[in-house]
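Sanity check record (used in CI):
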Amino acid sequence: LFAPEIEEEANLHFQRIYRSEVQIEAVIQMLKGFKASQVQREQEVFGCMIHNLFDEYRFFPRYPERELLITGRLFGSLIQHQLVSSITLGIALRYVLEALRKQVSSSMFKFGMCALEQFKHRLVEWPQYCHHILQISHIRQSHETLITFIHQALAQPRKDTP
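Expected output for CCR4-NOT transcription complex subunit 1 TTP binding domain-containing protein:
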């Protein structure tokens, strides 16, 4: 899918993230620049990083907790900052919802909560998604603050309504 040098650069960025050499916020700013760039290489590195992150999802349950939480922050931040859209956004939201449905003690649930925390202010845009979260009994039982936040988001007037 991607040239070896593009893969190498993308992997270097991920290594820097997981070694804590760069903050997630800085990576998000870099990705915003790459996505909007007129330089083809930067657009390819952006595409490769997004592709690799999504492709890696199936291995997230095997990640050590620290790395999984970092990944959750990155994943949620991609959604928050509109770096994924359309089909990719739908997949990202589905992955987070799948994680939230896991047992509260599972690492994937922690990933889901960490990711959701990053983009919860966008929940108002997706009332159906909010309803899916509200249907998860263990979230209703143990995350009252989140439930209250979602109810408030659902009560807000939609921007696309007159």
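Residues 4-121 form a domain with the Serine Threonine Protein Phosphatase 5, Tetratricopeptide repeat fold (CATH 1.25.40.840). If this sentence no longer matches the regenerated tokens, the check is flagged for review.
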